[in-house]
Amino acid sequence: AKQGRSGFKSTALTKMQTALSSRPAAFSGSRLRTDVGQQRVAPISRVAVPMVHAVAAGATDTERVDGRALRRSLNQTGRYVRQPTNNPVSQQLMDEHGVGYSTSGLVAQMRSQGNRWKQGEVSVKLANAYGYCWGVERAVRMAYEARQAHPDKKVYVTNEIIHNPEVNKRLREMNIEIIEDHGKGKDYSQIAGGDVVIFPAFGATVQELNDFKARGVQMVDTTCPWVAKVWNSVDTHSRKQYTSVIHGKYSHEETVATASFAGNYVIIKDPKEAQYVCDYILNGGNREEFLAKFAKAVSQGFDPDTMLQRVGLANQTTMLKGETMQIGKMLEATMMQKYGAEKLNEHFLLMETICDATQERQDALYAMVADPEIDFMVVVGGFNSSNTSHLQEIAEHKGLPSFWVDSAERIDVGSNTILHKLAHGELRETANWLTPGKPITIGITSGASTPDRTVEEVLHKVFQIYDPAFGGVAPKECGRLAVPEEH
């Protein structure tokens, strides 16, 4: 068993390894065929899967896999799981590791008393919507359950399960290998038949799904249902012969996966790029300039002169809701101006794909930055988390001082300094960021991939700076957070 954060043995992990190793896997989705479970397929020398599948327009096209049919076919393999089992041993281990919802710590206690807390001179207001979304918690839970169900197998994740360093560290401690792209593509050559492969919350590309289906591995698909909803939308665009305009970051794992399910597409990151596309639709333009501008963000063989006559909008689920809505209105107005209102539906297709969790966290922060009682914000979440960066961006645009940290380790109690990140990437160290002796009201929120314990640890350090004798908040059982039912 691995050592826990405090140095003691992980009791739940020990139970998992001993009590469950002799019983058949309960996480196989349907009965696993004996020949698949015993036979290992010889790996090829190297499978390099690039992080970015979008290529420059004009490149040689390859045979496109029908993403919708492929996803349906995975259920028929007997090696595919896409729902959690809510196993109690996995829940115990998640609680021990602090990678689930808080049930007795500071965040849980704040939740039970109107999202407020007062510790000496420090008053804290917790955003009404914050932290772990249902899809992220679900993905982490399924990864823990996969390790439990297959204690003796090699387990891999095709990327970080979520954008949180502590959660990914815990998976590695359980001998779950995370395969990342370090600039040369992902190397899957070590994965063989009978191994377990977890697809992260962001999803996996059509090419990856097809490859692992053929390899005979046990597949655990933790893709967030909201991400899958976006896949359905771009698939519909393709079937109805619309080009997908995807609001997102072309190199982000989720957008890479979404693009792989699309037919013709162009990825735009903000309203400025959307305006460029709209101007091209209305007035035409320099084709070579367009293709150079979106060289890494268009489908193979993309032709802006013919493929922008009918467009549908989709989005990376972690983008700013307001920007996605603005881009939709821009495209709608452009098509009405070009083709007339009576023909709008022939040229523009809009399907609702804005993630509820992303929207709720952004709306809650807009309300919080308008609160005159709050002196400054603390935003907690992974530095590579897109949805967290947008939370920080909201505070910055409002002009409210805000400190974005990915963990409590960024705060030095002794020197009263904080190493924090700005919305657009700059790391900054601020000395004397707190003023002990002066009452203060702090607003705090966290990204959708941030467990409650990380928020609690950040606040504990704030309290220690104000009161060196602070020894922590006594646990108090508050019950579990209600989450949507799995459908």
TrEMBL record:
InterPro entries: LytB/IspH. The keyword Iron applies. It comes from the Eukaryota. One of its GO terms (molecular function) is metal ion binding. One of its GO terms (biological process) is isopentenyl diphosphate biosynthetic process, methylerythritol 4-phosphate pathway. Keywords: 4Fe-4S, Iron, Iron-sulfur, Metal-binding, Oxidoreductase. Its EC number is 1.17.7.4. Its cofactor is [4Fe-4S] cluster. Pathway: Isoprenoid biosynthesis; isopentenyl diphosphate biosynthesis via DXP pathway; isopentenyl diphosphate from 1-deoxy-D-xylulose 5-phosphate: step 6/6; Isoprenoid biosynthesis; dimethylallyl diphosphate biosynthesis; dimethylallyl diphosphate from (2E)-4-hydroxy-3-methylbutenyl diphosphate: step 1/1. The keyword Acyltransferase does not apply. NCBIfam families: ispH_lytB, PRK13371.1. Belongs to the IspH family. This is 4-hydroxy-3-methylbut-2-enyl diphosphate reductase. It comes from Astrephomene gubernaculifera.
